[in-house]
Design goal:
The structure holds two protein chains of two kinds.
Chain A lengths: L1 H7 L2 H8 L4 H10 L2 H18 L1 H4 L31 H37 L1 H15 L3 H12 L3 H27 L3 H8 L4 H37 L11 H8 L7 H29 L6
Helix pairs in contact in A: 3-13, 4-6, 4-13, 6-7, 6-9, 6-11, 6-13, 7-9, 8-9, 9-11, 10-11, 11-12, 11-13, 12-13
Chain B lengths: L1 H18 L14 E6 L13 H10 L4 E4 L2 E4 L2 E6 L5 E6 L22 H13 L7 H6 E8 L2 E6 L21 H7 L13 E7 L3 E6 L11 E6 L3 H10 L4 E2 L5 H8 L4 E5 L4 E7 L9 H10 L2 H9 L3 E2 L16 H5 L4 H10 L12 E3 L2 E2 L1 E7 L4 H15 L2 E7 L1 H9 L5 E6 L2 H9 L13 H11 L4 H19 L3 E5 L2 E5 L2 E2 L18 E2 L5
Parallel strand pairs in B: 1-10, 1-11, 17-18, 17-19
Antiparallel strand pairs in B: 2-3, 4-5, 5-7, 6-7, 8-9, 9-10, 11-21, 12-21, 13-19, 13-20, 14-20, 15-16, 22-23
Helix pairs in contact in B: 8-11, 14-15, 15-16
The chains are: A mainly alpha, B alpha+beta.
């Protein structure tokens, strides 16, 4: 039977078929065939393009007032109208992309860089170190996330920087818990035991052998966290605790536009839709990343 | 047959009349119902500390006032009448007999109330006078000599000089809500959470940031037509406007946004009421600190922004061009003050800054006071609309002349604390209508004294005006004070706006609020036409 098959399929082709594929290539193949990921990537690319080239995409300035042009209805000159200070709504929306995306990425990266090492250290070292870190995590998790963020901003004062600081301070715990749970199982694996037997230092084991194996899970977490940070930052700014006037941030723009909801609804709708589209696009990418990076979910 | 039809008609008429709601004394076309009032915020209701127009609306219905203000004139309340000595320094108040404190509370259990007397009035006045942080106006405090109860129903107030603005809004005895000593002793600092008065409505409950419920005081000398008055705190003004149109609130008693005023004026089911005192929006500065201590820097700030255009954009049809504290129609208003001192001229602003050596030496687009360090001016503002919009406008105006203006937006209490501490920066301010307002703001120990606004000439002019019973002379003194303030401080001005409140037309016999909110008085007894809702 085996000889019969060999006659039908060329040897080279069989070799190609049974050749082991790398983790990266399999993940890439999964991502590149995922329709959600493609859609999300296209939308995100447009948003990033808009954020980078906002200045070239509009003839107006986001903060320059024009009192002879206030509360204009949407038109070819002002796609979503102008606000009560005569600023072009679409221009502010474009510049808002820059701020919102930056906040999302900054919060996620800062949070990751605190939470991941702490989780790895707690998980690998265990004992007192683990207990101390995890009790801090438990205490922070006992507070509702948004309430804690609001309280922190209230203490340090409302501003964009303080909001990012507050979001980082209250959300690193998610990474710590996640990474610790993974490390707890990884540290019992044979290659870690082997590294220990060969005399590798604890730092070397954590950073060279454990963390690389945590990265796929963290990458997925980061992608979701970017979306969540954008949403929460918008909520805080809406409440007046984040971006301060005249900063063109989507949440702040929503808050400002509510006064004009009756006469210029587009000024409210557009930032809301922008937040929704951005979060949706990032979540699509996050979902696809999770499917691609988790072997148990891959087809 | 005809007779039976006629009899039937008469019977129906008699039954209809019998069923029609008529009050005991016959002055309420419809009795009962709840009058729901929307305001932006509600503070604890202690008249000594509640520096809030809207909270005073509640206070003036729980408490009897010595007198009330109606259409700018004093009308009787707890004092049935009063006499003034020829020299204007001795006021003899005749207290209405038979007024009772509300009962059925911790202070006065049901049926155990007592009469309100002249001694209570004396106690209330001294309570305010002895508390330097109280709402008693500084200039009244300065001329207060004594308050004495001659008998249970006569109180004599002696001043060291005549008080020409004793009935003025926002100051004077208009604030004098009469409180019972027993309640103050029982509740102490928490009196504002458990107010007890002798006014037309009794306190029922207070949910902070939500509502205050009052019910009719059946023992009041006039029986209120309403059963209940509810004050709702509605900081989200757009939501409040929707609630007003939906009939969820019957009267919006706070400032109505300009865009909504026009809409409500066209709505035949609504009445727009002018509060009757244009209010200015302006900037204060910590004038005792550099660079604000230099008059040319203040001039530069005044000329860098187009105050009239900003105000017109943000206030819409409620905007009124002008500068100073007293608006058009108010004693002390100076016509042309805006064009003389506060006109928009960014080139002049830049030139003044250059002359002061506040220049952009490193070419980054921002001016520096010391080489290498950009000059950053914090701008403190309240966080409700349109405060943040004014901030955005000033930030942009600053950017146009190379000044970094850094927004510091916070709640009213935080802002007040910064002002009292004299923190460095620019402060957004609004309010203080009327000539009493001018005195309370710019006068000795006035509202902005902590920021360094102290000028003996201004104090002297305002003191003279406050005790001058000659209207013409007083007007001249107030105008001179206004002009002096403008020339000395150059406080950047945005102009005035009219305060419009809006009521649903099914609210009857209601003329709107002034400093006192008169729901049940000799001249008005508000009622709700439930069938018109």
């Amino acid at each position: 039977m085996a000889e019969h098959v060999a006659e039908l399929i060329p040897e080279a082709e069989i070799a190609e078929k049974i050749k082991p594929k790398s983790f990266t290539s399999m993940a890439w193949r999964s991502l590149s065939t995922n329709k959600q990921a493609i859609l999300g990537s296209i939308v995100l690319s447009i948003l990033v393009f808009a954020a980078i080239f906002a200045g070239q995409l509009t003839p107006y300035e986001p903060y320059t007032t024009n009192y002879s042009n206030v509360k204009q209805l949407p038109s070819a000159q002002h796609l979503i109208g102008t606000d009560e200070l005569g600023r072009d709504g679409f221009t502010r929306l474009l510049y808002g992309t820059r701020i919102s995306l930056t906040i999302g990425v900054l919060v996620a990266l800062c949070t990751m860089s605190i939470g991941v090492p702490l989780g790895a250290i707690a998980g690998y070292l265990g004992g007192v170190v683990d207990m101390v870190i995890m009790r801090v995590v438990d205490v922070l998790m006992a507070f509702p996330f948004l309430v804690l963020a609001i309280a922190m901003v209230a203490v340090v004062g409302p501003s964009l920087v303080n909001m990012v600081f507050a979001l980082v301070m209250v959300s690193w715990i998610w990474y710590t818990r996640l990474v610790r749970s993974i490390v707890l199982s990884l540290r019992e694996t044979e290659y870690i035991v082997a590294a220990q037997a060969l005399g590798a230092s604890q730092a070397s084991i954590i950073f060279r052998h454990i963390l690389p194996n945590v990265i796929p899970v963290v990458v997925v977490q980061v992608s979701f966290h970017v979306a969540e940070a954008i949403l929460i930052a918008a909520a805080l700014s809406y409440l007046g605790l984040g971006a301060q006037p005249p900063t063109a941030e989507w949440g702040a723009m929503l808050s400002n536009a509510k006064e004009l909801m009756r006469i210029l609804p587009m000024l409210s709708i557009a930032p809301g839709v922008a937040i929704m589209i951005t979060v949706l696009a990032i979540n699509f990418i996050g979902d696809a990343l999770r499917d691609a990076l988790d072997p148990t979910l891959r087809n | 047959m005809k007779r039976s039809i006629l009899l039937g008609f008469i019977l129906i008429l008699v039954m209809g009349l019998a069923l029609a709601p008529v009050s005991a004394d016959g002055h309420c076309p419809q009795e009962g119902g709840t009058f729901t009032i929307g305001v932006t915020n509600i503070l604890p209701m202690d008249p000594d500390t509640a520096a809030s127009d809207w909270t005073f609306y509640i206070i003036t219905n729980i408490h009897s006032m010595l007198f009330r203000i109606e259409s700018g004139q004093p009308v009787a309340d707890l004092a049935e009448s009063w006499d003034i000595s020829d020299d204007g320094t001795v006021y003899t108040w005749h207290i209405r007999p038979g007024m009772q404190w509300h009962d059925g509370n911790e202070v006065f259990p049901e049926g155990e109330s007592r009469d309100v007397t002249a001694h209570d009035v004396v106690y209330s006045l001294y309570r305010s006078y002895n508390n330097e942080a109280s709402t008693m106006a500084a200039d009244l405090r300065n001329i207060f000599v004594s308050a004495e109860a001659v008998d249970d129903y006569t109180m004599v107030l002696t001043l060291s000089a005549p008080d020409s603005i004793i009935y003025d809004k926002a100051r004077g005895l208009t604030w004098a809500a009469i409180v019972p000593q027993e309640a103050i002793e029982l509740y102490g600092d928490e009196y504002g959470l458990n107010p007890v008065g002798s006014g037309p409505f009794e306190f029922v409950s207070y949910s902070p940031d939500e509502e205050v419920v009052l019910r009719a005081n059946e023992d009041y000398y006039i029986e209120p037509c309403l059963d209940e008055v509810i004050f709702k705190a509605m900081p989200d003004v757009p939501a409040a406007m929707i609630a007003l149109e939906a009939g969820d609130i019957d009267w919006w008693g706070a400032v109505t946004p300009g865009d909504d005023v026009g809409r409500f004026q066209e709505n035949e089911d609504m009445t727009v009421i002018n509060f009757g005192c244009p209010v200015a929006t302006r900037l204060y500065m910590s004038v005792d600190k550099p660079p604000f201590d230099d008059v040319n820097f203040r001039k530069a700030l005044s000329h860098m922004m187009d105050g009239v255009a900003i105000n017109a954009a943000l206030r819409g049809p409620t905007h009124v061009k002008g500068a100073g504290t007293a608006g058009p129609g108010v004693a002390g208003y100076v016509e042309g003050l805006y064009d003389k001192y506060h006109y928009y001229d960014p080139d002049l602003a830049m030139s003044l800054l250059d002359d002061l050596g506040i220049v952009d030496s490193d070419g980054d687009g921002w001016r520096e006071m010391e080489a290498g360090t950009n000059l950053v001016l914090p701008m403190h503002s309240w966080n409700s609309d349109p405060g943040p919009d004014y901030v955005a406008a000033v930030v942009d105006a600053g950017a146009q002349v190379g000044l970094i203006i850094e927004p510091q937006i916070a709640d009213g209490a935080t802002n007040n604390a910064k002002r009292i501490a004299g923190e460095f920066g620019i402060y957004l301010g609004q309010g203080w209508c009327g000539e009493g307002g001018t005195n309370s703001l710019w006068g000795r120990n006035g509202w902005i004294d902590s920021l360094g606004y102290r000028d003996e000439e201004v104090f002297s002019l305002l003191d003279l005006a406050a005790s001058n019973l000659n209207e013409e002379e007083r007007e001249a003194q107030l105008m001179a004070a206004t002009e002096r303030i403008a020339a000395l401080y150059w406080e950047p001005a945005f102009s005035f706006f009219n305060i419009f409140t809006v009521k649903n037309n099914y609210v009857k016999d209601f003329f709107g609020g002034e400093w006192t909110l008169n729901i049940t008085t000799d001249d008005h007894n508000v009622w709700i036409a439930e069938d018109e809702r």
